[in-house]
Amino acid sequence: MAGLLSLPDESLLMILRGLHYKDLVRVLKTCRRLRQLVPDDSLWKWQCLHYFVDNECPEGMGWYEHFMYWYLDYGKYKNYAAIRTAWNKIEKFTKEWCPSIHEYLNDGLSEDELDSIEQTLPFKLPLDFRLSYRIHNGQEMSLSTRGVLGSCTVHSFLCTECLLPFQKGMRVYNKGSLCFTMDNTAGRGQVIGCRNINNFKIGRIYHRAFEGTYDLTTRTAKCLVSGDSFKEWLCDYADKLDRGEFFVDREHIFKFYHEPSCLATSHHITVKPTTMYVPSMSRAAPPVNFFAYRIIMEMPSEAPHSQSCRLTTRHWTVTDGNGKVERVTGEGVVGQNPVMKPGSKFAWISCTTFQTDTGSMEGYFMFTNLHTGAEMRVECPRYHMRALPSEDIRLKYAPNPHAQFWPDGIVFEDNLDDESDGENEDEDYMEDYMEAQEELYGIEELDSDDELDFMDPQEAFLDPHYVDLHQDLGDPYEDLVDPHEELEGEDEEVEDENEGENDNIHGNHEVENAENNSVEGGAEEIGGEDEVEDMGDENVQ
Predict the structure, then answer these.
(1) Which is nearest to 393 in space by CA: 214, 238, 146, 134?
(2) Can the peptide bond before residue 126 be classed as cis, meaning omega within 30 degrees of 0?
């Protein structure tokens, strides 16, 4: 100890900077010299930055006082730095690319407000989840809200996922979890486990049970697992935003993932596939896993003009997780025959489904050279699709076998514990279920032959009344904005079909075509009848 104290103050301060703040408090009690050094501003400035992500001290306040201010308010949240950093990344991204999302993020709740909310719940909130609501109490909700958690579009189907505020829509789900997100289509979202009950795990993030996944014999339902903890789930999303893995259009965040090595270049055309799993369009029993994919083609501006060409046909090889292969061919892509020339770019979104948790696609596109008429084959690399893992969640009450969605959000006061009610258990939970139907839907009596009218999300985009709900959003693919794929050059007046630039997006399909004028003002429809070997798939484009 004497040797340590013989060091100059600067050296001692460098050593003390490596200590946790709790150890610094202990050092205060050792000797007079260290007690004089420990309150040094340089030590507590680092502590504020490291633990509370704050490098600005209010005027007239020392860094030690400033640290104590943070500690007294947030000291119980050991993951504060990770959650705050995640929200900083989300705020930065949305402020720059999605101002309407950023503007409608709600301010956080106070400790007292969260304490009052917890008193109304049958469980305590996980600390990292509670901390997130100290920072932002979800987002304001309306029909035109862009979800901060991202969107997906296929055909005329547009789904956006919002972070719910505590004052609206947040309900207990199956007695062990809390619903905290909601999409604008199927009315489903994600829940966080808050009790180790009914197979829920505290802190784990689940997508709610799918249509058709209920097993009345075992009283279980399938739920997707999207994160082992709220911290992991939020930080992963924020990191992907920060790395620019998603693209933005009309202030919607589209969460297409690109495998880093998944690129192929042929005849100066680079093909880059990206994929997205869509839980709200999927189900676990019988299994249907729905995937959207976005294909991006680009020819660099330095490519020779002699390589200018027009796409004529597509050829896909689709392989499911069991090794079953389908081959799909068709004219053009999404009803178009784009022209690729130096500096041009073209992209589109389509979809496919698998009955397995994994699958892959690969293929090629045939082009015709505009100068020589020769055929050119452009390869698309193999890209993989993987569904989220699922777990069986035990139901405490039986769903209506005719209803397509379980009526979430009902807490039965007489059956909150994990024990059965005895020999009349079947009558008890069926009575609870009937009361839930009445509370949610105003149904006084529901016979077993009655059927509730719900929208099937896999058929939703075929219903014109359903699509009308989103008309106020306008064309979601006009004026494409991609923060990490800048298109150089300005729009020029077109003199013929092979000159100028055109970014054409229509019909909830996205086409970005920086210098491609092969399609003039045409609506983007699903292109042509596909010829399918083995088993047809009209969705594959």
Answers:
(1) 214
(2) no
| CB atoms inside a 10 Å sphere around CB 51 | 20
Residue 206 in contact with residue 225, Cβ under 8 Å? yes
Structure tokens at 22: 């709790």
Cα 16 to the center of its chain, rounded Å = 42
Number of other CB atoms surrounding residue 2 within 10 Å: 5
Which are the contacts of 520, defined by CB distance < 8 A and separation ≥ 6?
A: 494, 497
Distance CA 85, CA 90 (A): 9
- The CA distance from 511 to 333, in Å, is 10
| Bridge partners for 288 per DSSP | 283
Q: Encoding tokens for residue 267?
A: 């005849």
- Token pair recorded at residue 159: 């789904």
Single-letter amino acid code for the residue at 437: Q
Between CA 408 and CA 399 the distance in angstroms is 10
**Beta strands 325-331 and 531-533: pairing type?**
antiparallel
pTM above 0.70, yes or no: yes
Return the number of other C-beta atoms located less than 10 Å from residue 194's C-beta: 25
pLDDT digits 0-9 by tens, 118-157? 998 889 999 999 999 999 999 998 778 899 999 988 877 7
From the list 228, 192, 194, 220, the residue with the least C-alpha distance to 207 is 192
What are the structural domains, with CATH classification, of the chain? 2-74 (1.20.1280.50)
Q: How many CA atoms lie within 13 A of 212 on its CB side?
A: 12
Distance from chain centroid for Cα 407: 23
Residue 15 has phi, psi (to 5 degrees) of: -70, -45
